[in-house]
Amino acid sequence: ALKQSILMKLQSRFGQLETLLAELTVLNPKSILDRGYAIATADSGKIIHSPNELKTGELFRLQLAKGIISARKEKNTDTHQKKV
């Protein structure tokens, strides 16, 4: 009975560990890049959250799953405009 109880507890903990591992895998930045997203960074390495953080003509980088693209800001496009 004790052996069975210990085995059940170990199986439960192993299941919890597998669940946590799956959650971490989904949140891993590499996994996010593998799904087609990119991370934009300024030359300083700071992550860019808004086009307003860069001046027109300023260089920045796009980190993709399989490499980095160097880019230059040309203009802002407001994606939050209300459509009438």
Architecture overview:
By secondary structure, this protein is of the alpha+beta class. The protein has 2 domains: 1-28; 38-74, no CATH class. It contains 2 helices and 3 strands. The protein has helices spanning 2-27, 29-34; strands at 39-42, 59-64, 67-72. The protein has a 3-stranded antiparallel beta sheet with strand order 1-2-3, with no helix packed on it. A hairpin with a 2-residue loop joins β2 and β3. The model has no long low-confidence stretch (mean pLDDT 91).
In short:
The chain is of the alpha+beta class. It has helices at 2-27, 29-34, and strands at 39-42, 59-64, 67-72.
Give a short account of the largest sheet: 3 strands, antiparallel
**Terminal residue distance:** 70 Å
| Structural class by helix and strand composition | alpha+beta
Number of helices: 2
What is the domain tally? Answer: 2
Shape, per Cα inertia axes = rod-shaped
SSE pattern, N- to C-terminal: HHEEE
Descriptive labels:
84 residues, alpha+beta, 2 domains, three-stranded antiparallel beta sheet, 2 helices, 19% strand
Q: Any chance you could write out the topology, listing elements then pairs?
A:
Blueprint: H1 2-27, H2 29-34, E1 39-42, E2 59-64, E3 67-72
Antiparallel strand pairs: 1-2, 2-3
